[in-house]
From TrEMBL:
GO terms of molecular function: nucleic acid binding
Protein name from the UniProt record: Uncharacterized protein
UniProt superkingdom: Eukaryota
């Protein structure tokens, strides 16, 4: 009996739109949290709403137009190999 097998590219979960969405939410939660569970629960809905729909559409379009996994990995590697002076922050010029 044969079973279908789907091969995903290396770091497949890092190439999806939801990874970007979750990262943006975590950034919002980190800025608006006093590190208690109640604060996290109270800030979850505003964090979901903090991600602009235009940004979500850009992420979806990047995959919809056929950005292959190999191209996405190449672009992610090129972006992550740059050196920045601040720690764990994206410069304002790239955050747009």
């Amino acid at each position: 009996m044969a079973y279908p097998c789907i091969f995903f590219p290396k770091f497949h979960c890092e190439l999806t739109m939801i990874k970007n969405f979750w990262g943006t939410m975590k950034h919002y939660l980190g800025e608006h949290c006093d590190y208690t569970f109640d604060a996290l629960k109270n800030n979850m809905l505003p964090a979901l709403r903090s991600v602009p729909i235009t940004i979500i559409r850009k992420w979806i379009n990047a995959y919809w137009v056929g950005l292959s996994a190999k191209d996405a990995q190449f672009k992610a590697k090129a972006f992550s190999s740059r050196k920045y002076t601040s720690h764990q922050r994206v410069p304002q010029t790239l955050a747009r």
